[in-house]
C-alpha cells in the first residue's frame, strides 16, 4: 500500500538535500557506482531511506550529530532489517571529508561492480526461441 503523505514528504526531501547527501548523490546517481542503481529519499513506510539500492536491499544513510545514540534510529534499523534491508550508516563529516572512502565502502557492501555481461538484457528473446 502506498502512503501519499510519505511520498509527498520524500519528494520534498529530494528538493532540499543536505550538503553531504548532495555530495554522495553525485557518486550514486545514474548507475555510476559499479552499475548499481540507487534511488534517493525512497519511502519504505513508515520510513524514508536516504539512498536505496532496491535490487539488493541496501540502504545508505547519511547522518548528522542528531543521530548519535538515537533510539529512533535503532528501531528504524531493526524494522528495515526484519524486512531484509542492509543498512550502511555514514556520518556527514565522513561523506564531506572522504567521499571516495565512503563510496568504496558502499561498493564493497554491494559485492563490487556489476559485470555488464551478467545484467539482464533489456529486451530478452522469447522463450523457446522457435519463432513459429
From TrEMBL:
Keyword line: Endonuclease, Hydrolase, Nuclease
KW Transmembrane (keyword) present: no
UniProt GO molecular function: endonuclease activity
Residue numbers spanned by region Disordered: 110-132
CDD domains in the cross-refs: Endonuclease_DUF559
Record bears the keyword Signal: no
Bias (Pro residues) ranges: 123-132
Occurrences of domain DUF559 (ranges): 7-110
Identification of the protein by name: Endonuclease domain-containing protein
Annotated organism of origin: Azospirillum endophyticum
